[in-house]
Amino acid sequence: MRTTWNGSISFGLVSIPVGLAPATKPAARASDVSFRMLHRECGTPIKQKRYCPVHERDLGPDEIVKGWEVAKGQFVIVEDEEMEALTNRDDSRSIEISQFVDAGQVDPIYFDRTYFLVPAQAPAARRPYVLLLKAMEETGMAATGRFVQQGREKLCLIRPRGEALVLETLFLAADVYSQAEIDEAVEETTVKKPELELARQVIASLAADFVPADLQSDYRRDLKALLEAKLSGQEITTTPEPVSETPVVDLMEALRRSVEEAQESRRKPAKAPAKATARPRKKAAARK
Question: Per residue in 188-235, pLDDT tens?
Fold first, then answer.
């Protein structure tokens, strides 16, 4: 497994050599298909220019600096050397564990990106890795800490996952929006016992084991089919979905129908993947 960072986990006097390997693919946050912006008329990729409206000309890389806007049109200029002085203040290759916490107390909303913690190759160096893994599994604990990656300080959480340790980089507390407005709205709303009972039945009728292989994207599949059809010269025809107003349905009736539909869907076979609608493209007239 290829690692992008190599160092060690440190807690107390214990040091565990590890490497960081991304657990998700680079395209996982958007789509596995990437696009470039083209000029519609000629199909040429466009260029992004850095233009100064005062001097009315394009700028080179050495003419551009970072600026923090403190008021409308007023900036504090920060040089790259000043930024580097901050990021290089700690260039250690160590993940410093500050505390162990109950893993169930950490809300996944703070998770940013997941990495596998890869143990060292030498058997003797792997023993402390396995020791930490087993101890955290048995106690139900996770570890919080911080480290430096690409010159930037990152907060992190280390947790066991099967027979491996994984590291989650964490958002700062200030980066997560408050949900107080939602909490207040929910506290002011009541539900009836019959409604709650039917809601439990809906949940029970849809209950199943979590299977990671089921995490498939219909959009990603259909997008690939669309691109392959266009590449083969087929002309794609699209039919807009009819817009219909959402009917107002009684909550109890909607819950009853949901239970019936969930039970019925379990009896039906899996639906076949959708195919792109296409027709052969007409041959273009020969150019003179």
Answer: 889 889 889 988 988 888 888 989 898 888 888 888 888 888 888 888
Reported as half-sphere exposure (CB side, CA atoms, 13 A), residue 188 has a value of 6
Query: Taking the CA atoms of the chain, what radius of gyration do you get in angstroms?
Result: 27
Say if residues 102 and 139 touch (Cβ distance below 8 Å): no
Alpha helix (H) ranges present in the chain?
A: 80-87, 123-139, 180-187, 193-206, 218-231, 251-267
At 55 the three-state DSSP class reads coil
Counted residue by residue, the chain has a size of 288
Q: How far apart are CA 176 and CA 147, in angstroms?
A: 21
- 233 backbone dihedrals φ, ψ, rounded to 5°: 95, 10
Sign of the alpha-carbon torsion through 128, 131, 137, 141: negative
Nearest of 114, 157, 115 to residue 136 by alpha carbon: 157
Which of 45-59, 77-91, 253-267 shows the lowest per-residue confidence on average (mean pLDDT)?
77-91
User: How far is CA 87 from each of CA 75, 76, 131, 148, 273, rounded to the nearest angstrom?
Assistant: 22, 19, 33, 8, 49
Is the separation of the CB atoms in 168 and 114 below 8 Å? yes
Q: Cβ contacts of residue 88 below 8 Å, gap of 6+?
A: 151
pTM: 0.70
For tokens 């923090």, the residue is 68
H helix or E strand, kind and range, residue 170: strand 164-170
Q: In this predicted model, what pLDDT tens digit does every residue of 226-278 receive, in sequence order?
A: 888 888 888 877 777 776 666 656 777 887 888 788 777 777 665 555 555 54
Q: What φ, ψ does residue 175 adopt, rounded to 5°?
A: -85, -10
